[in-house]
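Figure-free illustration: sequence to structure, shown twice.
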Amino acid sequence: MEPVTTTTAIAAAKLVELAFNEFVKSGAGEIAKKTVGGAIDLVKNLRDKIKAKFQGNERAEKALAEVEKEGDSTALDKVTKYLDLELDEDEAFATEVRQIAQQIINIQNQNNSSREYNNYGRDQINIETIQGNPKIGGS
């Protein structure tokens, strides 16, 4: 078996973050919904695929249970290591979960870019609350 590369480790870490990060955050309900920005079903699908892959692996199942029950970041690291091994060994699984993760990332990026407000231009004023004598334009 090949040694774990940094790229592979980052990929597994990102997958675990996307799938299980809501359990690590306090008040997972609304915060998680805002974090994933409309990708809730995809996150659940990703998490379910990872959990299904670990069925029968007692250590991995225990780590998953700790993440979901206690939001333990140490258990999250364990899940990342187990997932990293599975990604190396099962190429079809790796492709499938990475595609789901990419869809989640794309949705998050769309949501973040649509909220971005750029204040371009030189003379910006709020016409709702004009006070005094605002000058617009040159001199």
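We now fold a second protein in the same way, so the two outputs can be compared directly.
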Amino acid sequence: MAKLLIVYHSRTGGSRQMVEAAAEAARSEVEVEVLRADEAGPDALLAAQGYLFCAPENLAALSGQMKEFFDRCYYPVLGQIEGRPYAQMICAGSDGENAARQLARIATGWRLREVQPAVIVCTHAQSPEAILAEKVINAKALERCREIGLALGAGLAMGVF
């Protein structure tokens, strides 16, 4: 059975909710392993056939924990995961575009194949209080996360990727 690895970072719960929705949908099609960025390593990447990366945007960039995951794992798997499918989800307070671009550039270096456009969920958190508050992701946004999880899972299960 194909395996989808979901690696995420969440400080205020938004990314975690997005991952839970995607993982639930993907499990109907494939084996799913969900790891926080600080837990995931090269072995987990090598053992999976596809990836879903999810992180918050912090200060117009990919969160530090997620970047650290990529920094730690980049060279140990370089040249060993080329062509594998991936998608990404970003939880942002404003637009999330820069974090998505940053993650896509890293994936390009690994020669991963983007199979779904990035899902960016904007919480519109702009004040210090709103930025630090626990997030509640609305049902419509969670449905988009379920759709990307199901699409990745189905593609892996059918061998399309």
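Summary for the second example: The beta strands are 3-8, 31-36, 50-58, 61-62, 85-92, 113-114, 119-122.
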